[in-house]
């Protein structure tokens, strides 16, 4: 059924309704048949499935496997603490999963709350009476009343109109309101002027329409369904964590296998070797990495929320920090969406619009005042944003004048102009406004120095030069003309023939100012190596002007419009995307998707901003989708990863800085956590090779990984951005989270220093009590227990120095500011208090098989902290000198 081609009577007949609307009984039947007028949620899993996801990612699976090995070891050889270790690991996985789930659930609820801020009601006619009801109860066949400012609740066919203009920006991306009518149309459905679509807004005028599609049957619903079928894939951080986990698990497994084989070579039994191999493997798996990463991301999301960015999934925090390209809309994101008339050109003179203007400029402003459908109601301006801006400026310049409109030829997209016939103080005038090329083609004369002169080629050339000069200033420019008819004639005699032999008056420049923060944000992106590509539904010239104003482009940008894009091959488009100054204009949803897909295929990490339902597929396809919290549609918010609560592009740049900081901080605390793996593994190596008592027990390793190390690691996760973080290029896709330099620093430099300290502490206690090499010990021997306690304490003491060393990879600790991160001191204080509990409290002694140490033991071990700290400072100094 081509509903746009039908007459009003045929529309009523095809939808089985009438001018009186539906009956309540028929409404209930159709509501049951078609369902509520709602857009289904975009591919949202149920709560149990989403909670289960937290247990099935790679790092969680590795930890679950480690817990399984612990339980197996306990079964084969009870009483060695492996049961406690297994339970502790399970607790870590469960608590982490629950915490992540709660964080993301809270973000989802915050998003739901955003949707409910503005309840959506609509006026319909049912059984001949007007009723206001929630839009979700509209059904096909409902007769809807459309008035200025209301939101269209469903796809509908217009049956009456009165100067009705609709803003299609949420659907098409084009901010220019379009005139609608109710006449049958034989062309393409998408271009039909008698159709209004769900989610669009009435800018001016009024009308009646019959709903023919609701819910998922609308254009909104069709795009939402397309969005739900797109697989966004894993975020960069999720991929990196999986790789880092494989590396850590691979190292642990390799070490475990090494000790298993080594045991055979020195004559140990199979089960002794197996239990020992399992123990060392579990010990080397960084159990603390999962909760620390999760908490670091949660802290980053909270910081972003304070900066007006709502994070829906925790890994989105870091993903934004790795972005290389931002594809952004223009209106409302880069600009304030607040059109203002700023400049008038008349009589070969450019003036800024103010209270006093030359007479020629006042003539232009009078045309802007009267050839205008905006109006003032109760002190508020109502109507099209462009016409509202002209009305505000004209009322500022001109006094009230007695005027009456006799006739209007309305604006439409093809004519690009409008004309009105007015009487002013008893005299008849014809005024026209619109695109310069249209208005100038109708003019034979121009007003210069108060006299009507012939419009010759020199005048035309000068007008176009002025027009281009104003456009180069980032202004949207409208032209104005007038005519004094010789004979007024009856009203029904007016037609388009009046738009001839007109007199050109001048130009008015309008400015939608960019947000004041945007130029600085654009410059920050440039310094950070992030490319910004404007993808908008607006015209190319308007987009290019705004791009120049915010310093997004510096020369003549390469502007591609939708129709041109359709004719481009993928190869040509790839080449075009390599240009540094490219703008995409008049983009449809499929065009935006194509651009984003090709950018991702080229290896870019792509962020996409959007507010309309037309943006939803691209938001979903991008590495990071960013929707608008104020102007954004529900479909866009559902499809995105981040919601900007202030719709401000500068907020994206702030969030990028936070994301980069999160990634940098993750590397800092990973270095800190992994460094302690070496002093945990060396005692086992010494136990096998040197045939000494085991210097460190499994439970003592657990005390470090899941106890004392946690808060200092979180303190490192809260480090502020390092100076110049936004002056570095985005990290390469080939850069690993567990990079070779990080592993070398942790395993080959910091870790060995800690291992020397812990083994020294172990032997110092034994030697101080007369222990001789080869002397047998038993597990409950007080001397042996005290020696393992000294080994554990040495690790804790050196880790307190390590946390300061890890605050920066290359810069000296003294340049970072001693008190710039006070959480470091809190973390160290808690770490030491926990260690005092483990060493001196009976309960701690019983759980971790420890015994009290003498003050001398602490004094002997503390210097190792200084050794580690100054060794690391020396390494950093040498690195900086070599780099210089």
Task: Write a brief caption for the model.
By secondary structure, the chain is an alpha+beta fold. 49% of the residues lie in helices and 17% in strands.
Shape: elongated
Biggest sheet layout: 9 strands, mixed
**Residues in helix, %:** 40-55%
Strand content: 15-25%
How does the helix and strand content classify structurally? alpha+beta
| Uncertain stretches of 5 or more adjacent residues | 113-119
Whole-number average pLDDT? Answer: 82
Using only C-alpha atoms, the radius of gyration works out to 36 Å
- The number of distinct β-strands equals 26
Number of helices: 32
Cα-to-Cα separation, first versus last residue: 74 Å
């Amino acid at each position: 059924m081509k509903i746009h081609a039908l007459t009003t009577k045929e529309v009523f007949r095809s939808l089985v309704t009438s001018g009186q609307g539906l009956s309540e009984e028929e409404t209930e039947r159709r509501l049951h048949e078609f369902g509520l007028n709602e857009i289904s949620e975009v591919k949202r899993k149920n709560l149990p499935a989403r909670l289960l996801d937290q247990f099935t990612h790679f790092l969680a699976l590795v930890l679950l496997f480690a817990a399984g090995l612990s339980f197996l070891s306990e079964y084969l050889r009870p009483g060695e603490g492996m049961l406690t270790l297994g339970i502790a690991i399970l607790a870590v996985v469960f608590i982490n999963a629950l915490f992540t789930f709660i964080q993301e659930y809270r973000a989802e609820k915050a998003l739901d709350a955003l949707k409910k801020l503005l309840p959506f009601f609509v006026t319909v006619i049912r059984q001949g009476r007007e009723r206001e009801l929630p839009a979700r109860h509209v059904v096909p066949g409902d007769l809807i009343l459309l008035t200025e400012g209301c939101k269209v609740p469903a796809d509908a066919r217009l049956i009456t109109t009165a100067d009705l203009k609709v803003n299609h920006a949420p659907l098409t991306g084009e901010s220019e309101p379009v005139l609608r009518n109710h006449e049958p149309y034989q062309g393409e459905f998408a271009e039909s002027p008698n159709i209004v679509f769900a989610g669009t807004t009435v800018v001016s005028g009024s009308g009646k329409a019959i709903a023919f599609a609701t819910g998922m049957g609308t254009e909104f619903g069709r795009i939402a369904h397309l969005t739900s079928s797109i697989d966004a894939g894993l975020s960069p951080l999720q991929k990196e964590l999986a790789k880092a986990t494989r590396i850590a698990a691979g190292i642990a497994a390799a070490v475990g296998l090494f000790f298993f084989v080594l045991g055979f070579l020195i004559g140990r039994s199979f089960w002794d070797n197996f239990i020992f191999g399992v123990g060392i493997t579990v010990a080397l798996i960084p159990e603390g990495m999962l909760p620390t990463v999760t908490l670091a991301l949660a802290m980053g999301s909270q910081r972003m929320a304070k900066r007006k960015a709502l994070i829906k999934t925790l890994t989105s925090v870091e993903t934004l920090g790795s972005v290389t390209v931002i594809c952004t809309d223009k209106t409302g994101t880069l600009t304030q969406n607040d059109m203002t008339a700023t400049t008038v050109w008349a009589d070969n003179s450019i003036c800024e619009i103010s209270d006093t203007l030359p007479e020629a400029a006042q003539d232009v402003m009078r045309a802007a005042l009267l050839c205008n459908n905006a109006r003032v109601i109760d002190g508020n301006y109502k109507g099209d944003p462009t016409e509202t801006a002209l009305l505000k400026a004209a009322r500022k310049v001109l006094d009230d004048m007695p005027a009456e409109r006799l006739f209007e030829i309305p604006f439409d997209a093809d004519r690009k102009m409008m004309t009105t016939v007015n009487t002013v103080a008893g005299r008849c005038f014809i005024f026209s406004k619109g695109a310069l090329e249209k208005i100038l083609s109708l003019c034979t004369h121009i007003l210069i120095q108060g006299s009507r002169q012939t419009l010759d080629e020199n005048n035309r050339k000068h007008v176009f030069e002025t027009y281009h000069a104003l456009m180069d200033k980032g202004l949207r420019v409208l032209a104005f003309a007038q005519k004094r008819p010789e004979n007024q004639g009856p009203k029904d005699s007016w037609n388009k023939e009046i738009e001839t032999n007109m007199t050109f008056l001048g130009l008015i420049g309008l400015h939608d100012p960019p947000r004041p923060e945007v130029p600085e944000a654009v410059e920050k992106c440039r310094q950070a190596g992030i490319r910004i590509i404007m993808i908008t539904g607006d015209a190319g010239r308007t987009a290019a002007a705004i791009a120049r104003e915010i310093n997004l482009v510096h020369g003549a940008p390469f502007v591609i419009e939708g129709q041109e894009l359709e004719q481009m091959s993928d190869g040509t488009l790839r080449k075009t995307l390599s240009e540094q100054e490219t703008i995409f204009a008049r983009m449809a949803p499929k065009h935006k998707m194509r651009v984003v897909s090709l950018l991702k295929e080229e290896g870019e990490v792509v962020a996409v901003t959007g507010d309309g339902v037309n943006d939803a597929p691209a938001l979903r396809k991008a590495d990071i989708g960013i929707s608008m919290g104020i102007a954004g549609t529900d479909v866009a918010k559902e499809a995105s990863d981040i919601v900007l609560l202030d719709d401000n592009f500068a907020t994206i740049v702030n969030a990028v800085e936070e994301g980069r900081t999160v990634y940098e901080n993750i590397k800092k605390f990973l270095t800190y956590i992994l460094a302690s793996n070496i002093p945990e593994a060396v005692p086992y190596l010494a136990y096998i090779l040197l045939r000494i008592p085991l210097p460190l027990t499994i439970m003592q390793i657990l005390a470090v990984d899941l106890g004392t190390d946690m808060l200092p690691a979180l303190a490192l996760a809260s480090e502020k951005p390092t100076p110049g973080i936004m002056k570095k290029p985005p990290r390469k896709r080939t850069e690993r989270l567990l990079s070779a330099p990080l592993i070398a620093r942790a395993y080959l430099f910091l870790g060995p220093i800690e291992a020397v300290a812990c083994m020294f502490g172990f032997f110092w206690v034994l030697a101080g009590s007369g222990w001789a090499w080869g002397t047998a010990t038993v597990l409950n021997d007080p001397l042996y227990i005290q020696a393992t306690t000294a080994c554990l304490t040495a690790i804790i003491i050196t880790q307190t120095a390590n946390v300061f060393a890890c605050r920066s990879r290359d810069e000296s600790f003294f340049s970072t500011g001693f008190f710039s991160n006070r959480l470091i001191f809190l973390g160290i204080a808690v770490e030491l208090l926990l260690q005092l509990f483990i060493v001196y409290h009976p309960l701690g002694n019983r759980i971790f098989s420890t015994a009290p140490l003498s003050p001398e033991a602490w004094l002997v071990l503390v210097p190792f902290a200084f050794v580690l700290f100054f060794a690391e400072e020396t390494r950093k100094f040498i690195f900086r000198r070599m780099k210089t």
